[in-house]
């Protein structure tokens, strides 16, 4: 499968009153056509900043891409002008935000908000754009679309608003859809509806999805591949099965073990001690070393290189080095996927 | 844990109602005729989606809201009865609360020592400054912080640490009962586990009783001995936590459990979901009869006409659904 989006050695920094915060420190990602890639990590891991850099939505002038490239259709997005990016955003790459309450304009009808993107990027008449808006509302499962296009966001529930946001994102048949915590603000039963809708739409439109989330359940449900981020770096990447059933990085182990499962009867959760590193003064070595139960001397001094576990599975951990002691993952990891 | 402790009721909630007036004549029935009890030393989990009344129930239990009707008994004493300020103070000391947002629930202009010692001061639990400080340091150490944190301000701490301060504050007056309203939902996954483990450790050491309110069903299952499921101001089902998850009776509980994404790709690929249609109706104008009937895949005519009775369908497993009511169960296939 060909790569539709490639992020190579991306570095993003923010200027703050405390000095430079290195939020993203050398991230590599690839997104293949038609697949859903999940980026998981905790707050401050750099997952949102990475996608904002892809979209050219970093807050200016505080945040900037220091080095690296974002290749989309053989063009480096970090080199494009604001005007060129505007043409791309919404038509080729579009985004779904976390909070449907704030990502819609309360003073505009839903119809107008959907038509805005269509009219801007596609040469459609007003009447045709309206027709398309109604089609889109129908596509995302909103009943009475003819009536609903005339209504304002406050007349919609949270789940319905998120459907509208998805309709806007899909309005121009984008090739890449970036969904930043698309279901975090929703209740579980509504979350199930939206995840179903997104999977269904992905099948119908063959859009590639980058899904940002901290919920590993959502990852297991939606994604084909996963990148785990920590301290501004991707520390492990692989297919969902590799990440859930053959994880190699102690942080991934910790993440998987600290979530309780509905169908398990364990008495204590395996918590990861400590807190994530301060990226205004990032650690010299592996960012997880300070919290890692298997940390060695080398971990605090040098950042490990990526080692290949398989063709699709990579991790950056000194435990993969042949000179390191052999460490088994905790029992909470279901090696091989057996239950 | 439920089997080892004596089944003595610490909290008894009887037909509790909390209605709010909203603009004009409309009333929002946030909690409408809810009854349950909490045994001494157990953790009772309360789950439901936003707007189901779980937080209002918690706040009414501790008299942050005055109940519209019904009563709450704490160790046999009516929480909402007429009380002198002295009696109220004595009661407040036994019940404490941990809040959801660790950023909003700590006063940014107070030092950690003053935040934690506020209850100690109000209830005169320390005779001098030294004793007060000693108590604060002990509490900080109990929750995994240390003495040097006492002189700092809330903004100097991370979310997880702030929630630890909130827990220390609740523990300062040596309560019997703690209401934790979504104590971990603002925290990252790895930090959530730390806080939950701490709460369980403290429960063991101090024999605390918890009401744990959350929307994260897997965490509620993990920490609770018994769980109550609420929907639109009503209790839908109450059972032991393993029993509830292994054998959910109410169609709403069944849908809720099937909606949780499980971090296991193989399982996710093969599972069948019950996807509920539509949204939760407005609590200002709830559906007649059973409130879940507008989204219930099994609803029949009787559900629109009759409010379901609170029935013990199996031992210690209570449910409000006509399917389990001898009088109506023949209406369902």
Automatic annotation (TrEMBL), chain A:
It is found in: Cell membrane. SUPFAM superfamilies: P-loop containing nucleoside triphosphate hydrolases. GO terms for molecular function: ATP binding; ATP hydrolysis activity. Residues 5-256 form the ABC transporter domain. Its main location: membrane. One of its GO terms (biological process) is peptide transport. SMART domains: AAA. Keywords: ATP-binding, Cell membrane, Membrane, Nucleotide-binding, Transport. InterPro entries: AAA+_ATPase (IPR003593), ABC_Ni/Peptide_Import (IPR050388), ABC_transporter-like_ATP-bd (IPR003439), ABC_transporter-like_CS (IPR017871), Oligopep_ABC_C (IPR013563), P-loop_NTPase (IPR027417). CDD domains: ABC_NikE_OppD_transporters. This is Peptide ABC transporter ATP-binding protein. The gene is oppD.
Automatic annotation (TrEMBL), chain B:
It holds the Pfam family oligo_HPY. InterPro entries: AAA+_ATPase, ABC_transp_ATP-bind, ABC_transporter-like_ATP-bd, ABC_transporter-like_CS, Oligopep_ABC_C, P-loop_NTPase. Residues 11-257 form the ABC transporter domain. The keyword Phosphoprotein does not apply. Keywords: ATP-binding, Nucleotide-binding, Transport. GO terms for biological process: peptide transport; transmembrane transport. One of its GO terms (molecular function) is ATP hydrolysis activity. It comes from the Bacteria. Belongs to the ABC transporter superfamily. This is ABC transporter ATP-binding protein. It comes from Pullulanibacillus camelliae. The lineage of its organism: Bacteria, Bacillati, Bacillota, Bacilli, Bacillales. The gene is oppF.
